[in-house]
Structures are given as structure tokens and as C-alpha cells.
Backbone:
């Protein structure tokens, strides 16, 4: 019963997260029309990519036990594809200065951090519990950066005195997804997932009430 409930929550979490991951399509349709990224920041999408990479690795059998975290793999795998697409579109229409940030700083750093994490966890540690502890710890640190990415948006809102850069629907989807994944982490008795999504849930609640979007 417990495993079925956890799987059901994971499937619902996948559905809510897909809504969250695809929400920026509206933002990028505007980028397409205006042929410019305007004042939008790529930082939240880059940090989301890093988290999707780390937690996809966390859910794979090399780190977790067998396929116990399959829902985590599926949604973060989708997240990787979507974030890469968004970053590519952003890069195409960004200013030269922003292109340097994305292509020379942000994306290479993400690739290096993930690569180092994957190699160390696979080579240095022999047991799953040690690998989960290491990758989970790295994931929590990366999540702090991801959860802090709305501050970039908040700064822009304060400067422009407009909420157009923090849509309400993103805040709502963030709150819904974080609620479901927090329940999944608790049902899985996984400390790293529970702490990660408890933090995310708290921030998404604040953002939902203030209409600021956090990234997943």
C-alpha cells in the first residue's frame, strides 16, 4: 500500500512538474515575437538544468537502489530536455554580453559540476547509501542556488515596478509541484528528498503568495 501510494504521488508530481517546466513556453513565445530576451534572465533556467542533471543521476540505479526513484528520473529527464531548449532559444536571441555569460560561464560550469559529481560518486564510493549521501548533499547545495534564482526576478520587479517577469501561473505550478514532491520524499523516507522539497515548498508558498516564481 505504501509503495503504491508513493508511486501514485510520484506520478502526480510528474504531471504537476510538466506543467511547471512547460510554463516558460509563454515567455519564450514572447522572445520569438520580439526577437529579444529583453530583461529576462537565463540564470533560473541554468540552475534548473543543473538540478535536473543531479537528481536524474540521483534516481538512477547507480546511486539509488534499483528503480526506487523512477518518477524522479522521468520528470528530471524531461526537465533536462526542456531547459536545454529554453537555454538554446535564450542564447539565440540574447545580447552579446548575455551570450558570453551563458555560453562561456553558466553552461560550462554546470557541465563541470555535474561531471565531477557523477565521477566521484561512481568511482570513489562503493555502496549505494554513500553515493546517495554524496549526490544528495551536492543536490541540496545546488538547490539553494536554484531556489535563490527568483531573487534575480524579484530584483527586476523592484527595478521595473512591474510583475510581468514573474507570472502568477508559474508560482501556482511551483506550489502544486512542491507539495506533491514533498509528500513523495516523506513517503520514501528519503531525508535528502524531503529536506530539498520542504525548502522548495516553503519558498514556493512565499512566491505563490507574492507572485514570484521559483525554478524546479
Residues:
Amino acid at each position: 500500500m505504501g509503495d503504491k501510494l508513493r508511486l501514485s504521488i510520484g506520478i502526480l508530481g510528474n504531471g504537476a512538474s510538466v506543467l511547471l517546466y512547460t510554463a516558460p513556453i509563454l515567455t519564450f513565445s514572447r522572445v520569438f515575437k520580439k526577437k529579444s530576451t529583453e530583461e529576462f534572465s537565463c540564470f533560473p533556467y541554468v540552475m534548473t538544468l543543473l538540478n535536473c542533471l543531479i537528481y536524474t543521476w540521483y534516481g538512477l540505479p547507480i546511486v539509488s537502489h534499483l528503480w526506487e526513484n523512477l518518477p524522479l528520473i522521468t520528470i528530471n529527464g524531461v526537465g533536462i530536455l526542456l531547459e536545454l531548449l529554453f537555454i538554446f532559444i535564450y542564447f539565440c536571441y540574447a545580447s552579446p554580453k548575455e551570450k558570453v555569460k551563458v555560453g562561456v560561464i553558466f553552461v560550462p560550469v554546470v557541465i563541470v559540476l555535474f561531471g565531477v559529481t557523477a565521477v566521484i560518486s561512481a568511482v570513489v564510493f562503493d555502496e549505494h547509501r554513500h553515493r546517495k549521501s554524496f549526490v544528495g548533499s551536492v543536490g541540496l547545495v545546488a538547490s539553494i542556488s536554484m531556489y535563490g534564482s527568483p531573487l534575480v526576478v524579484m530584483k527586476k520587479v523592484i527595478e521595473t515596478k512591474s510583475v510581468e517577469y514573474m507570472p502568477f501561473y508559474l508560482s501556482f505550478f511551483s506550489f502544486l509541484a512542491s507539495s506533491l514532491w514533498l509528500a513523495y520524499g516523506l513517503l520514501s523516507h528519503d531525508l535528502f528528498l524531503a529536506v530539498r522539497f520542504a525548502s522548495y515548498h516553503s519558498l514556493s508558498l512565499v512566491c505563490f503568495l507574492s507572485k514570484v516564481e521559483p525554478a524546479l
